[in-house]
Inverse folding.
């Protein structure tokens, strides 16, 4: 029995608590028409704790955010207000899995 | 005094042009060069714009050169309300046909105005906005400068000495490929030192197209825009001591081709303004051309 318990305990210790993972969000924004216009929105997202990278895709009208899923939990009301203040209209978001996916 | 109305009329096109450049604002697209209907500014952020203009005008052998710089600061107070300050500096040089010259330079009249976005419709890759604006021009510029020949005419003075009000409405339709802006405005000039400059109605239209990149991609981070702007203004006669100056006021129409290079944090712009038509009263001075360059920053 001991020969099973000890390795199991060691394996559990090695695993430790659940590791944080980065998640990619694709935000759909209406009204973005130029690089200059979207800069303050990118900056506001980048300043959020847990956000690791932000990039805009003007062609698709999307902003891609890579964030620590333990620190960032976007909500529709939160993003609606944020983009209203930046002069745009938030339409929705998708969580697309790991960053870079 | 006989020169004053000419100078005033002649030099007023640049202040008018620059006033148009800085006195109108609406958020979220590239914005014209000769008026600021597109200056983007969001809540809690500042936008800065600096423009320099060199212009020449002439009549009956008199030549006028004017160099102006305008610094604009805008702040987003609410999602719909933006507040702006306009700080002009001006240098004017008049070469008289009869010989000699007169010049003046200094701080001009600072403008303060607010713009309220009354209607906004966003779609994917496009936006349409309508925004009225209202402001006041403070008598911060000196209007009593003198030289060896005596008091300079009002048109050479950096400031008007009066509290002037202006207002209008701007509409913008912007897509990823095209931007169209239009505005109408009215400036009511008050009397100061016995001189009341003519009121000015303006109607401006700007059309810009994205030239580069030809095709958008996920990596697109800059735009080169090219376009033309039409600037119309109708100015009533200046009144001095209650008497209308017969050589003041009239209608002008300009064509202004321009280029803009936009990145995320800054934007550079350049244009040349060419008169298409000048239907002026009496011997009012005709404008020859103006060169504009500017830089805009997201602060």
């Amino acid at each position: 029995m001991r020969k099973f318990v000890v390795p199991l305990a060691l394996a559990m210790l090695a695993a430790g608590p659940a590791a944080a993972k980065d998640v990619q969000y694709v935000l759909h924004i209406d009204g973005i028409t130029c690089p200059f216009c979207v800069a303050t929105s990118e900056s506001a997202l980048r300043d959020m704790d847990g956000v690791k990278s932000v990039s805009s895709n003007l062609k698709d009208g999307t902003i891609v955010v890579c964030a620590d899923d333990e620190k960032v939990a976007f909500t529709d009301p939160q993003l609606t207000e944020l983009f209203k203040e930046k002069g745009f209209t938030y339409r929705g978001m998708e969580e697309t899995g790991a960053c870079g996916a | 005094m006989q020169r004053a109305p000419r100078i005033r009329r002649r030099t007023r096109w640049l202040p008018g042009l620059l006033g148009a450049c800085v006195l109108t604002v609406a958020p979220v697209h590239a914005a014209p060069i000769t008026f600021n209907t597109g200056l983007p500014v969001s809540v809690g952020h500042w936008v800065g714009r600096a423009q320099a203009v060199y212009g020449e005008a002439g009549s009956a052998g008199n030549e006028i050169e004017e160099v102006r710089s305008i610094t604009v600061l805008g702040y987003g107070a609410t999602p719909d309300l933006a507040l702006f300050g306009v700080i002009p500096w001006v240098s004017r040089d008049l070469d008289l046909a009869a010989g000699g010259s007169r010049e003046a330079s200094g701080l001009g009249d600072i403008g303060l105005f607010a713009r309220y976005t009354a209607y906004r419709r966003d779609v994917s890759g496009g936006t349409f906005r309508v925004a009225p604006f209202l402001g006041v021009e403070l008598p911060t510029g000196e209007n009593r400068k003198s030289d060896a020949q005596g008091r300079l005419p009002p048109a050479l003075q950096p400031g008007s000495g009066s509290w002037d009000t202006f207002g209008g409405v701007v509409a913008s339709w912007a897509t990823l490929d095209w931007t169209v802006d239009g505005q109408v405005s009215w400036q009511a000039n008050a009397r100061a030192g016995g001189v009341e400059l003519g009121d000015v109605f303006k109607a401006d239209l700007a059309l810009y197209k994205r030239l580069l990149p030809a095709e958008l991609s996920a990596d697109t981070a800059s735009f080169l825009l090219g376009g033309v702007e039409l600037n119309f203004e109708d100015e009533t006669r200046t009144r001095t001591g209650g008497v209308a100056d017969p050589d003041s006021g009239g209608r002008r129409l300009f064509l202004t081709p321009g280029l803009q290079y936009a990145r995320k944090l800054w934007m550079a712009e350049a244009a040349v303004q060419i008169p298409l038509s000048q239907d002026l009263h009496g011997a009012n001075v005709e404008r020859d051309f103006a060169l504009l360059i500017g830089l805009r920053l997201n602060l």
